[in-house]
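Lab intake sheet, docking and co-folding queue.

SAMPLE TYPE: protein with bound small molecule
LIGAND NAME: magnesium ion
LIGAND FORMAT: SMILES
REQUESTED OUTPUT: full 3D complex as structure tokens
PRIORITY: normal
SUBMITTED BY: R.K., bench team

The fields below were copied directly from the construct record.
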Amino acid sequence: MLDEMIEIEEEEHTSQLTTPTFNRIAALVKPHWRWMAGFLAAIMTTAVLDACFTYINKLIIDQGIVPGKFNLVLRYAFVYGVIQMAESGLFFICIYLVGILGERIQYDLRKSTFNHLQDLSLSYFSQNAVGRLMARVTSDSGRISNLMTWGLLDMTWAIVSVFSSTVFMLVINWRLGLIVFSIIPILMLIAINFRKSILKEFRKSRRANSRISGEYNQNFQGVRVVKALGREQENLREFSILTDTMFRASYRAAWLSALFLPTVQIVSAFALGAIVWYGGLQSQIGAFTVGSINAFVSYLTFMIWPVQDLARVYADMQNSIASAERIFKLIDTPPEVQDRPFAVAAETIRGELEFDHVDFYYEDRSPILTDFSLKVKPGETIALVGPTGGGKTTIVNLLCRFYEPKNGCIIINGHDYTEYTLHSLQSRIGIVLQTPHLFSGTIRENIHYGQLGASEGEVEEAARVAGAHDFITSFEKGYDQNVGEGGNLLSVGQKQLISLARAVLAKPEIFIMDEATSSVDTLTEALIQKGMEALMQERTSFIIAHRLSTIRRADRIVVIEAGRIAEMGTHAELLSKHGHYYRLYTQQFKFENAEYTFQSPQSPASLPAA
Ligand SMILES: Nc1ncnc2c1ncn2[C@@H]1O[C@H](COP(=O)(O)OP(=O)(O)OP(=O)(O)O)[C@@H](O)[C@H]1O
Ligand SMILES: [Mg+2]
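RESULT FIELD (auto-filled):
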């Protein structure tokens, strides 16, 4: 977490605008170019009008006040008012358009990243933490849109302001104009360098700060170990080094921040001095007016702000470019599982199903399934059992095509399942997970999710079939009861019953259940059992089973160990073999309900008495 944060900061510090990134950012704005053209035109006009004010001031002084022509002053005052009103109107338009454009860019970015994230395969999410991913996507798209709106606005305003002020100064007196103009690059350089150094110190201090928090956590959560090992002195020394680093970085940042404005002011003071000196001399021979001196001073003091703005936008731009690159990288990640070019929609997947010499490994490439073959007849119920980490969930992940086999294939209705579209396969598979997920909202909405077109009657019917109706109606609000964030207001058993109802409503052709290992009370367990049976009827089903009651009812039990089929058969067959299943059974289920205790015909004495 900490390392990732530091890595991101480094990335932001070093990223440069490359042509491909620039082109893609430009492509984001292209559909909305009218809004952008509108606000750019408005802000440019505002900047030019700003520069006009100062010039009008000069005219008022030189032509009105100094010669005492007050009717002229009145006329200029009127022009002044009109320009001011025009500028206010333009400001309104500008800020309104920037707001709209920003929202549009963010909307597009969020939509395309959301869409793409949905398409990405499970493998992507097993390598990237979703919470942090979402937070990054949200803040990154905000930054990009900020750069293209407020950033661009500030930059345009600054450039046009400097440019138009310079033009007016050149018109008034080109020699002095050139002198003043020549200090702009100096100011710019100072501003950019200060910004960079200040940011660098801030970054150092932030990094030290997160290390300090980390140290706090470690040392005080593990306070017993620290004390037991007598590490206090040592820890204090390490901690002092960190706080020292942070103190020094913050100190330098404060020092630089304080120094910045005075430095700019000193440089401008030289220019101001030059104006007053040169202007004063010239005015003695009548070549320079009071109004002109005033105008020059105003232009110069005014130009400090655009220069600062430019430096700020420049610094922000680096962050935004890093953000853009992250977002584009995400959008460019191809989903590992995709429809093949000529994939067709499967009419049905009710037929025979076969794992044909399937090999599979995850990203780390250590083999999980090796030469896995299994034929399943339509309507059969398969119980997958075996030690933890054996590969049971992996098998159903492959079946759902969340991942695809690396070698071999999965055959459905006589065709390799990659010949079908993902949607036509996945929409026909109903799955209830080990840790069922509910969405925030009501119980009704959650069941409805199984089939959006279903009527309210069908929703309740599905809940009845799944055995969830009774507990739902016992709630004060019944089906309209809120389930809380991720369903956290309900018990695990209740969540599973609702997931079952959802699966019943979806009427899948293949049903998969990863049974919960967590203990639910016997009544709920019986309900879940009933719901499952309703779903398994006449459907091909794969149950990753932990409960003996489920296992015994399966048509076939497949024992998975280290990615291979260790044994296969019915409960009775497997017990009589005294092999893997027998061991599993005697270890895992011997304390289960007496009702399930099995009497083996061959060796009754060797079985556990419940
Ligand atoms: N996304 C993943 N990336 C890398 N390895 C994984 C991933 N998911 C599972 N594995 C590994 O694959 C092996 C099989 O895992 P799997 O989840 O299929 O086991 P399981 O039989 O379902 O176990 P359990 O009974 O505990 O649910 C394990 O060694 C596990 O560490
Ligand atoms: Mg599992």
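REVIEWER NOTE: The two ends are 49 Å apart (CA to CA).
SIGN-OFF: pending second check by T.M.
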